[in-house]
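Researcher: I'd like a structural prediction for the single chain below. Treat it as a standalone chain; there are no partners to consider.
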Amino acid sequence: MGLAMMGLCTFTACSSSSDDDKKPETQEVTIQDSEYDAIINQYVDNVVMPTYRDLKTKNSALYNAVVAFGNNPSNAGFQTICDAWLAAREPWESSEAFLFGPVADFGLDPNMDSWPLDQEAIVNTLKSQQWNNMQWEGDYDEDDEAIAAAQNVRGFHTLEFLAFRDGKARTLTDQAASDNAADYVYDESNATAWAQYMRNTAQLLVDDVTLLCDAWETSYANEFKKHNRGDFTSGLSCIEQLIDGCIEIAGEVGGAKIGEPYDLYMSGKTQEALYAVESWYSWHSRDDYTNNIYSIRNAYFGSRDGSINNNSLSKLVAKYDADLDSRVKAAIKAAADAIQAIPQPFRNNINTAEAASAQLACQDLSDVLEDELKPFLQNATK
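Model: Treating it as a single chain, here is the predicted structure.
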């Protein structure tokens, strides 16, 4: 028995040694901070700035459409406004992975994109013509109720309310379905005020994006690219901000934009669920949310057209961990595809299985960014 045990032990030891010999050695990944510089420059110069400039151009076109309607109200004029609004929404929603810096510091996100709509306040402003209700002054404070009240009666969604009805352009002869603010319609008695409200709202959108572009072009872009002071003191700190912006919008799309209406609907609060849907007057919710995911894709790919630029975060990650890069790209695609699979319009399909699946896909995307991509880069960067 002793010999048998000796033989067994000897065999086991040899087997273990053989297995160890077959195991590949783990290669430690080291990324030099300077490797991020080209990625940061590409991100700023070919993703962020072109997106904001596109938004500025399209907000100006939207303003011009509103002015033309005021000069000559017509059904065709309403349609032109709606077309221009939809065009402007694409660059805005495609910017939501980088809602940091001036857009946050100056309160420009809620200025341009507050939701849900405060329908009562919008109608009251329209009736009273107290256009100063749309303005606020001083330093931005997200907890200031007066600022929030002003932001709730301006921006894209106020103009959406004034231009769209049930997914279509309003007409000069719409009939109100009820006395509720949500059903308020354009008519001869409010025509002048309606046109003025749209004009004021469109002008503020132009003002806000002009401030945003100017802030990036005059200083913020250069500070971000140099990353040698303030919040950004290394290339990694900029990349962390890039990723954090992606994490935040992935979570917002799944948890708030889709999840909050879904949860309200499933709890029996169907009317509240409808009003919690972003862009529900235009029936553009699904494309808004998809463009939010494309903003993540653009940040990660270093482009705006779905191609992967050589100076992109995707290329760098693929160089050191191809499997991780594949998981990130797959999660981005899965989230966008899941959103597009929700039956149109989302406001009429809030409680569907497809909506629930889209929430999960967005959470999966957020998880791979936060739990895999960001730690990988943090641990590897020297």
